[in-house]
Amino acid sequence: MTTPLADILSGASLDSRPLRERADRLGHDLSRPHVAFVGQLDVATESRRSLSYQRALAQVAELAAEYLPRPLVAMHKGAVVALWPLDSVRATSAGPADGKEQIGLVASSVRRAMASVPDAEGATVAVSGTEQRTFQQAYRTARGALNVALRTGRSDTTVTPDDLGVAGLLLQLNDARQLIAFADRTLAEVRQHDLRRSSHLLQTLRVFLDSGLSKTEAAQRLNVHPNTVSQRLRRIEVLAGLDLSAPTTIVEVGAALMLLDVAEGGQPT
């Protein structure tokens, strides 16, 4: 049987009587506004990843059990996800009165709980904020914030949309198709090439930009020969009709990649 959280994030109607009754039996109140936390582990031993996540989930569930109303906690699409009632957050008023600070304190507690398990080298937890109108929107915002943070080198910390600048603002949008449409004005052919041929052009482009436009450093990060990076970049220029030596093109490409990061926020990293 799926958990109430999995059903909710899969689009189940909150008006469903069986869903509400099942949630009530577990101590959850779906009528209250919630904030979403999404966490990912850094594990020391890849073969123990599954066990580490099971332990991390148990730690977060134990933490959640101390709060009323009871938060929903489960694994979802490869991450630890918690829907935390705002009333539960505000009930911890031993901390500061500011709501965002209180949410940050709870998020830090979730991150420490995850990072405490054996084989964990750290944990990154992203927070949705309180502006989303539905559980699905809150989850998508937190998942997108996690993906953007990890892709830009932020790990073993807590992250909110406010920490991500323009990307954080874009995460508030409800229609990812609009973001992909804007990105595709620049990178449609490259994105489709990767999808058709399982190539790594977009990944190479991201790493090239993150490496300060150094092909040598990008090659080291990708564990390929510098000539391979050069060949991929030339292929990108041909497919997209771009000149990657032009500063304006680099800005345009960087913006398009950020839009794709945000649009893909609901997908596992």
SSE order and pairing:
Blueprint: H1 4-9, H2 17-25, E1 34-43, H3 49-64, E2 72-76, E3 79-85, H4 86-90, H5 99-115, E4 120-127, H6 135-151, E5 158-159, H7 166-170, H8 176-197, H9 201-210, H10 215-222, H11 226-240, H12 247-263
Parallel strand pairs: 4-5
Antiparallel strand pairs: 1-3, 1-4, 2-3
Helix pairs in contact: 3-5, 6-12, 8-12, 9-10, 9-11, 10-11
Q: How would you explain this protein's 3D organization?
A:
The protein contains 12 helices and 5 strands. The relative contact order is 0.11. Helix content is 55%, strand content 12%. Strand 4 (120-127), helix 6 and strand 5 form a beta-alpha-beta unit. The chain is globular and about 60 Å long. The two termini are 26 Å apart. The protein has helices at residues 4-9, 17-25, 49-64, 86-90, 99-115, 135-151, 166-170, 176-197, 201-210, 215-222, 226-240, 247-263, and strands at residues 34-43, 72-76, 79-85, 120-127, 158-159. A 5-stranded mixed sheet has the order 2-3-1-4-5. By secondary structure, the protein is of the alpha+beta class.
What descriptive keywords fit this protein?
alpha+beta, five-stranded mixed β-sheet, globular, 269 residues
- Using only C-alpha atoms, the radius of gyration works out to 20 Å
Number of E-type strands: 5
- Describe the strand arrangement of the main beta sheet, using strand numbers: 2-3-1-4-5
Biggest beta sheet summary: 5 strands, mixed
Beta-strand content estimate: 5-15%
